[in-house]
């Protein structure tokens, strides 16, 4: 089985000890830091913004995979670049001029990702797929950590990987929400090559070991 990229979500870390979380991730087999930004409008929760991302960046030695759950994310592309984003992912449902937004992200020197909610068909990505570095399939409804994985995600991953084989063979397919050691191997077999894990990592007794287990299933 191919080894997936592991992107632990700091949404599930202790916000009073983010330096500790960053140092743990630096020493672990994690590939990216997954950073969830929520605006209280696109999703019914508010997380944190640029000042917190900048503060974590000072202690981080790995790329920042920033997942924007905000309306009209095109307003803040430069700000997230300046805050430390390496990969910037916007929601298809939140950005009416997605093609322009994706080009703007790339023009700012970041990798461009598009995320889709559980109700959104992967077919809607067909025309933009050749322009993308990454698709983030939400396997829970966005807004909160610790939710139950939605099983239909497997079908979406298989369909998207078949589309990508034709249109964009290097596409990274990332899964976000309710990922654990039970569903991770099946997700990779279905065609996913990046896994976000928040609660499963940070609520475990040994987060570093949990990351290693996800990476080397
Ligand atoms: O984007 C997200 C929520 O909207 C988070 O990345 C996701 O929920 C990860 O948390 P968990 O692994 O606990 O489900
Ligand atoms: Fe996320």
UniProtKB/TrEMBL annotation:
Cofactors required:
Fe(2+); Mn(2+); Co(2+); a divalent metal cation
Q: Which CDD domains match?
A: RPE (cd00429)
Amino-acid positions noted as binding substrate in the UniProt annotation, renumbered to this chain: 9, 67, 143-146, 176-178, 198-199
Reactions mediated catalytically: D-ribulose 5-phosphate = D-xylulose 5-phosphate
Quote the record's cofactor note: Binds 1 divalent metal cation per subunit.
Would I find Plastid among this entry's keywords? no
Q: In which pathway does it act?
A: Carbohydrate degradation
GO CC terms: cytoplasm
Give GO terms for biological process.
pentose catabolic process; pentose-phosphate shunt
Q: Transmembrane segments in this chain: where?
A: none
Binding positions for a divalent metal cation per the UniProt entry: 34, 36, 67, 176
Is Calcium among the key words of this record? no
Give the residues annotated as coiled coil: none
A GO molecular function assigned to this protein is: metal ion binding
Give the protein's biological function. Answer: Catalyzes the reversible epimerization of D-ribulose 5-phosphate to D-xylulose 5-phosphate.
Family that this chain belongs to: Belongs to the ribulose-phosphate 3-epimerase family.
Protein's name according to its UniProt entry: Ribulose-phosphate 3-epimerase
Q: Which organism is it from?
A: Salibacter halophilus
């Amino acid at each position: 089985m191919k080894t997936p990229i592991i992107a632990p979500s700091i949404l599930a870390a202790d916000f009073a000890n983010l330096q500790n979380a960053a140092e743990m991730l630096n020493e672990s087999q994690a590939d990216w830091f997954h950073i969830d930004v929520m605006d209280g409008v696109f999703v019914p929760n508010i997380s944190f913004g640029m000042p917190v991302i900048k503060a974590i960046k000072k202690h981080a030695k790995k790329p920042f995979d920033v997942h924007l759950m905000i309306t009209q994310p095109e307003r803040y592309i430069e700000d997230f670049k300046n805050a430390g984003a390496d990969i910037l992912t916007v929601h298809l449902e939140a950005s009416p001029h997605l093609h322009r937004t994706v080009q703007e992200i790339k023009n700012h020197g970041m990798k461009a990702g598009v995320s889709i909610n559980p109700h959104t068909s992967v077919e809607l990505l067909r025309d933009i797929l050749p322009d993308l570095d990454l698709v983030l399939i939400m396997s829970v409804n966005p807004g909160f950590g610790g939710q139950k994985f939605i099983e239909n995600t497997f079908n979406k991953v298989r369909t998207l990987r078949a589309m990508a084989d034709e249109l964009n063979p290097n596409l990274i397919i990332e899964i976000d929400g309710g990922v654990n050691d039970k569903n991770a191997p099946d997700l990779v077999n279905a065609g996913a090559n990046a896994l976000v894990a928040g609660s499963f990592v940070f609520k475990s007794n040994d987060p570093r070991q949990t990351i290693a287990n996800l990476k080397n299933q």
